Amino acid sequence: MTNEKLNLTQTWDKTFAKSPKVEHVKKTFHNRYGITLAADMYFPKTAKGKLAAIAVAGPFGAVKEQAAGLYAQELAERGFLTIAFDPSYTGESGGLPRYVASPDINTEDFCAAVDFLSVQENVDPDRIGILGICGWGGMALNAAAIDTRIKATVASTMYDMSRVTANGYFDSMDKDARHRQREALNAQRTVDYKTGSYALAGGLPDKLPDDAPFYLKDYFDYYKTQRGYHSRSLNSNGGWNVTSALSFMNMPILSYAEEIESAVFIVHGEKAHSCYFSRDAYSKLKGDNKRLMIIPNAVHTDLYDRKDIIPFDEIRDFFVKYMQEQTYEF
Prior knowledge:
This protein has a domain at 22-160 and 253-322: Rossmann fold. Helices cover 33% and strands 18% of the residues. It has helices spanning 67-77, 103-118, 135-146, 161-167, 175-195, 214-223, 245-250, 275-284, 302-305, 312-322; strands spanning 22-30, 36-44, 51-57, 81-85, 123-133, 152-156, 263-269, 290-295. The chain has an eight-stranded mixed β-sheet, with helices on both faces. Helix 2 packs across helix 3 (135-146). It is globular and about 55 Å long. The N and C termini lie far apart (39 Å).
């Protein structure tokens, strides 16, 4: 197994300020599909011995220089070794064609991050957790359902990408609408093959229409402004390949959420359009080591970067409590 040589940016190009309390280094690792992933590793400057470790990814269509990196740095300030990584086909990570999303491969990306962390000399392999933001919150739960090495999982402002792709927002699509969507996506496959390139779905518009729904304004305020824009972010620019939606329509990622035995902490904003994903996912979970926290008055992107709102201390306490061998009651 070899890592592809990636062209990694060595300058600080994050959407958040660098912490003086934390060391930062660039890393690469590979998943079992042979794709090399790019990551930023953070750890406290005062760290000694083997640390508990956390892999962070998301939001869906973002890069590690955005919210994932902020979460990773904040948790490193609180004593963990963390990595924020770009999922396959995105950001500085490898994989061709570019800008593909996959419920299987993106779940594997989390498991591959656990592989990488497990063999680091300064990591305790029995104390590894994961944290997924937005669409990667759902991927994190899917990873927790299959990877028993993961001791604790946090899903923040979670999306179930398979559900929203197959059913639309608030489950508004019926089977006829799904059939029409499949027809359009498969027609696009033919066009893509003829042209030898993959059409992009388009990220957020450069200017919002007057009648834009609130969730679109919420995303625009993060991805298209100085607050969260990044040149490698799909949402800030051209978006995913159109045909990425096909596999999500047919592969529900939370099918075995009720079988997750490790600890899970789900955090969501009360006013977020997406809050129903977290409430419904939490209702599937079993055992006495599961927790749901609803943040009053917070919207979806507040949990991307609002350090005054994101419950970093509660997330730290959760990981500290559960990232060790314990027996749970189910």
